Write the structure tokens for this entry.
Amino acid sequence: MLQHQLFKHPSGMWKCTVCDWQWNSKPRTECPGVTRYDWGCHPDHLKDLVDLHKRNLKPKKGASPGGGIYSMRRCCWTWLYSVKDCEIDNPELPSIVQWDNVGELKTVGQLKKINLAPSEDTKPRAVAWVWDKDEEWGVWIPLYHEDDCKWNPKDTWITKTQLKEKYLLSDGWIKRIGEPNKLLDNPRYRNAPAIKLYSRKRIENFLADNAEEYAQWLDKRDKHIAIFEANREKIFAHRNAIKEQTKLCLKCASGCSLPDGFFCAIHPMGLIDMPCRDFQPRDD
């Protein structure tokens, strides 16, 4: 700091020929040695360190400020530097854009809302500056394009029933996946078993790791379904015949219940043709 080079204006104001500031009475402060400005009144070519940071610039080594702004509240100086006396701060920083001109570029948070995320080796196409109270000069927010991102949907919970309905997994496949990620109390029945919840990402990663085997399983399953659909009527007719015959056997005089199961005196090895022609109702 220097001593003010003061002269008294005919109007009675005191003015410094160095900092170009004026007072009503003779000042006792020191002179900054450069022109003093009010906030927002300095020339466009002079920038403070925050504005320089927004442009990825920093003062060159040994550069002197071209002006200053004094904060009465903080009792400190904010120095202003000419853009001509500055150099690039971070050569690897992507292109800088303003928030009102980002176009189709999106932040990581915006991409997350549409189930996208940049890969680890994906570099942002541009950056935009935001103020951060924890950082002295703010921070850069990377911006990405959707074409440079991968599909990354939000993780959700899937029940065992949904595994069978949505992913067509059998009990054997579910057993291979392992224990559920989470157990949830049954909201309807207090004494019922806990609901098993699986991470959707975990399931899809597991299926991706076993993609070839999973594809073969689906193909085999489709063949079984095709056979079932082609013989649906016969299969259900056979099932219904077994149900009806079971009812008759329980009412037949030739049958009795043993510790090892049901026994028929006429057909001890089991019935071959249905319905049974030897049915005789029991006497009450």
